[in-house]
Amino acid sequence: MSLNNVQLREIYDGLVSRNAHETEFLQAVLEVLESLEPVVEQRPELLEQGVIERMVEPERIVCFRIPWVDDAGRVRVNRGFRVQFNSAIGPYKGGLRLHPSVTLSVIKFLGFEQIFKNSLTGLPMGGGKGGSDFDPKGKSDGEVMRFCQSFMTELQRHIGPDTDVPAGDIGVGGREIGYLFGQYKRLRNEFTGVLTGKKVGAGGSLARTEATGYGVCYFTNEMLAAANDSFQGKTVVISGSGNVAIYANQKATQLGGKVVAMSDSNGYIYDPNGIDYQVIQEIKEVRRARIKTYLDFVPSARYVEGCAGIWTVPCDVALPCATQNELDGQAAEALIANGVKFVAEGANMPCTPQAVAAFQAAGIPFGPAKAANAGGVATSGLEMSQNSMRLNWTFEEVDQRLHQIMKDIYASAASAAEEYGMPGNLVAGANIAGFLKVADAMLWQGVSY
Ligand code: NDP
Ligand code: 2IT
Predict the structure, then answer these.
(1) CA–CA separation, 218 vs 207, rounded Å?
(2) Is 298 exposed, middle or buried (0-12, 13-18, 19+ CB in 10 A)?
(3) Which 8-state DSSP code applies to residue 294?
């Protein structure tokens, strides 16, 4: 641990002793606290007023039973979570994840990151996250529907368009949002913007589906431009093959890059001719099949079992877009040895601290998740605005706003890094810029007893 400030270290040690087994959460907190050292030295009132201690403790956590009935008539039970982390600058906002690896630690790390990410978008959204250890893989549509309905039957009492607005994340896309929304509407008898990622034509925003992937590339484009470079002619590797990865592929290709490898949790495909995002869309969004079936479309491509191997594929730009801690120190060294020039996180916390340190030591521009993947939640914020105004913007209008937001996020992360004496360190810059707005709102609102 490299926390030199005694008070920050005490806060972190206290958190470790209270949450010893929450490894993902502690990992996310430590990175932020490290970035905040120069900030608390300049502004001692942040510690005096307990802002940091308050910020690392969720305002509220709900944890509940989700019973549902499978196609064989058997009762199944999963565990549901909603962590309402911070509402200083707006209603809680953040996705719902359905994956067997979901624990309270995972949801707390995601909710914690969401506070700073949402702040960086410049839109009035607090931080929250939820999910369940339900595994949608291999489940029928009916099973997913009954699960989502049961999930919402409990969740509905904790959320609302001005209270807490969930959305998608791993395992939650348009289908699941539809089932969740339908159940909320039925139980509450109201059609409101209580969820984002809704179907276009039924309260949803154009470009929300594409937003995270596009946003990652808009952010990467700013990193490239700062180095007088562009996507043109760049070889790109994108891990994952879900919502973020598919549209990162589309935008990277549009901007002149060539995406040569993508993956799922089983393995990766390598296609030196460039992977057409529409093929991945067909495999993942329509057929819900494995990435291996890419070979049925492009027999000349190669499939390799094991997803971590994707980082041995030489590339100029690496965009990890699957899940947390998918790219470790060893993978980072392999990428560096193969000449990677830019790295940006599409997933949340996909790079381990060792990987981030390796990229930074090698002088490789690194775009952290909070900044680089904020385009999804930013566009959720734009969906909320459209819902409140009861009107719809065109695809171009939403995309333009998204693009501007990503440019602004890059600028604020870069300038905060510079102001606090760490030029080029977008990790520190994003943490500081995201933190300051929330901290000032908390100071302004006082401590409520
Ligand atoms: P999807 O469910 O659409 O896709 C997830 C992809 O990641 C799949 O290819 C999946 O493979 C792979 N994956 C998931 N878990 C693992 C794992 N444990 N090991 C290896 N591969 C895994 O999710 P999204 O694309 O929406 O989310 C991807 C990442 O982006 C997540 O970190 C999410 O938090 C983040 N994110 C998402 C946003 C959004 O708007 N959707 C916004 C900002 C960030 P398989 O099919 O084999 O499971
Ligand atoms: O991690 C994220 O930012 C998301 N999954 C999107 C959250 C949202 O509310 O759109």
Answers:
(1) 14
(2) middle
(3) H
CB-ligand 1 contact for 347 (6 Å cutoff): yes
Q: 97, 107 in Cβ contact below 8 A?
A: yes
Report strand pairing: 258-263 vs 267-270.
Answer: antiparallel
Instruction: Give the number of other CB atoms < 10 A from CB of residue 161.
Output: 15
**CA-angle at 275, arms to 269 and 279, nearest 5°:** 95
Between the CA of 286 and the centroid of ligand 2 the distance, in Å, is 22
Which 3 state secondary structure label does DSSP give 359? helix
Question: What pLDDT is stored for residue 449 in this prediction?
Answer: 62
Using the CB atoms, write b or e for 120-144: b if 16+ within 10 Å. bbbbebbbbbbbbbbebeebeeebb
Of the listed ligands, the closest to the CA of 117 is 2
171 Cβ inside 6 Å of ligand 1: yes
What does the DSSP 8-state code read for residue 328? -
pLDDT tens column, 5-63: 999 999 999 999 999 999 999 999 999 999 999 999 999 999 999 999 999 999 999 99
Q: What is the mean pLDDT of the chain?
A: 98
310 SS3 class? helix
* Sole residue written with tokens 């549902």: 68
Cα(241)–Cα(277) distance, integer angstroms: 9
156-185 pLDDT tens trace: 999 999 999 999 999 999 999 999 999 999
Q: For residues 290-318, give the mean pLDDT.
A: 98
pLDDT of 2: 82
**Residue 136, Cα to own-chain centre: how many angstroms?**
19
The SS3 call for residue 282 is helix
Report d(CA 4, CA 200) in Å as an integer. Answer: 50
Does this model's pTM top 0.90? My answer is: yes
DSSP annotation of 145 reads H
Rounded CA separation 274/271 (Å): 6
How far apart CA 393 and CA 226 sit, in angstroms, is 31
Using a 6 Å cutoff on CB, does residue 5 contact ligand 2? no
Instruction: Determine the atom of ligand 2 nearest the C-alpha atom of 373.
Output: 3
By annotation, the residues acting in catalysis are 129
Task: Say if CB 129 and CB 28 are below 8 A apart.
Answer: no
Q: What pLDDT band is residue 414 in, cutting at 50, 70 and 90?
A: very high
Which residue lies with its CA nearest to atom 21 of ligand 1?
Answer: 265
* Tokens linked to 244: 């973020």
List residues bridging with 129 in a β-sheet. Answer: 83
Residue 371, ligand 2, Cβ within 6 A = no
Residue of 220, 266, 239, 262 lying closest to 351 (CA atoms)? 239
